[in-house]
Automatic annotation (TrEMBL):
Protein name (record): DNA-directed RNA polymerase subunit beta
Length: 209
């Protein structure tokens, strides 16, 4: 998704220090981990409301390129990899809240688990409710139980994946191309859910590097 954004980026120095030198994979990895740990530790130690809201809205104002440059190459089950996926998930929801809420709502109707409750969206879930949920999850990363925020995001992805798969099944007889697209989306959401859930487990065991 990062190629869709080309706005100039004003980057807070304490967050994105040391971005240059990222050509070397070892340097890229080190910078990703250092910035992720520094950012999270600093904000969670003193969760000033204004700072948290700026971090939540950062990609709305500047695009996602700066965050992508920092964290998108990190392994999925690492702190920078998890943070990247949380921001990417929020971006996906906010870019198309109508579709996101539709697939989530469908998922709540077909999934046989407590994931809709874990995700915590207001029911029924429309575009406004799904946008609020995206912000709540990201806010929880900085101010709440980090593992719970990841578990909520994972649950959202599992429900949405089930919804996409259900709509794909309905579309197959008359719209096979749409069904293929939705099946791919369902698979990606399922993989994302697995990464986020694994991140939550690692965080609880103090092993999320």
């Amino acid at each position: 998704m990062s190629e869709e954004f080309h706005k100039p980026v004003k980057v807070p120095g304490f967050v994105f220090e040391g971005m240059q030198g990222g050509v070397d994979p070892a340097v890229t990895s080190r910078v990703a981990h250092e910035t992720a740990h520094a950012l999270l530790a600093r904000v969670r130690a003193d969760p000033d409301g204004e700072t948290v809201e700026r971090l939540i809205a950062y990609t709305d104002q500047h695009g996602i390129d700066a965050i992508a440059e920092l964290w998108s190459r990190a392994l999925p089950r690492t702190l920078p990899g998890v943070l990247w996926r949380i921001y990417l998930l929020r971006l996906m929801i906010r870019q198309d809240p109508t579709s996101s809420s539709f697939f989530f709502q469908r998922g709540t109707e077909v999934i046989d688990s407590i994931d809709p409750v874990v995700a915590g969206a207001s029911m029924p879930t429309g575009p406004d409710e799904i946008t609020v949920l995206a912000d709540e999850i990201l806010r929880g990363v900085y101010t709440g139980d980090f593992a719970v925020a990841l578990e909520r995001a994972a649950a959202f992805c599992r429900v949405s994946s089930a919804g996409c798969a259900s709509v794909a099944d309905d579309s197959e007889p008359t719209e096979p191309e749409r069904a293929t697209v939705l099946t791919t989306r369902a698979s990606r959401l399922s993989h994302l859910a697995t990464d986020l859930a694994s991140g939550a487990k690692l965080w609880r065991s103090e092993s999320l590097d």
